[in-house]
Amino acid sequence: MPESALREKADKELYKYWKQQGYLTVTSGNVTDYDYITNDIMKYSELLNIRAVGYDKYNATQWAIDATEKGLPLEEYSQSLGNFNKPTREMERLILSGKAVIDNNEINRFCFRNVTLKSDHNGNVKPNKQVDKKKIDGTIAMIQALGCYLEVPKFTNELIII
Questions:
Q1: Which of 83, 103, 137, 157 has the fewest CB atoms lying closer than 10 Å?
Q2: Residue 81, class by beta-carbon neighbours within 10 Å (0-12 exposed, 13-18 middle, 19+ buried)?
Q3: Helices and strands (DSSP H and E) totals, the chain
Q4: pLDDT of 105-155, one tens digit each?
Q5: DSSP code for 105
Q6: What is the rounded distance in angstroms from the CA atom of residue 65 to the CA atom of residue 120?
Q7: CA-CA distances (angstroms) from residue 135 to 44, 45, 85, 123?
């Protein structure tokens, strides 16, 4: 998270607490540091065999070019409502059946509490913010990763870490 969020956002005190507890990484400046994120993923790639990094191409062209040049296996996965329906419903099914284990991470719990479901006239659903300023990024990332996993047949027999 950019350090400016610790001064400017509605939940700045919570962000400061998470930073102090070591739950949140803060980068300098007032915009997302995509180089930091890419380098962090690259560190994990030294420990894990990353088969795909699902991403939404919206405003991510330069990041996708840079990440691909560094050897990250990107899989485009749009965050559209129709595209999020299947993994959102699957995540709900896994949680309700007790088959999904979501870590006890305070930030993830915060994100899940801020989620409501948005639906269209066809019954498709996706996570939406209950309150405009509240974060749901962790929930979105989990569902996007699950969606990527479900859509790419080559991963169906592999372990996925979300």
A1: 157
A2: middle
A3: 7, 4
A4: 899 999 999 999 999 999 999 999 988 878 999 999 999 999 988 887 665
A5: -
A6: 33
A7: 24, 27, 20, 24
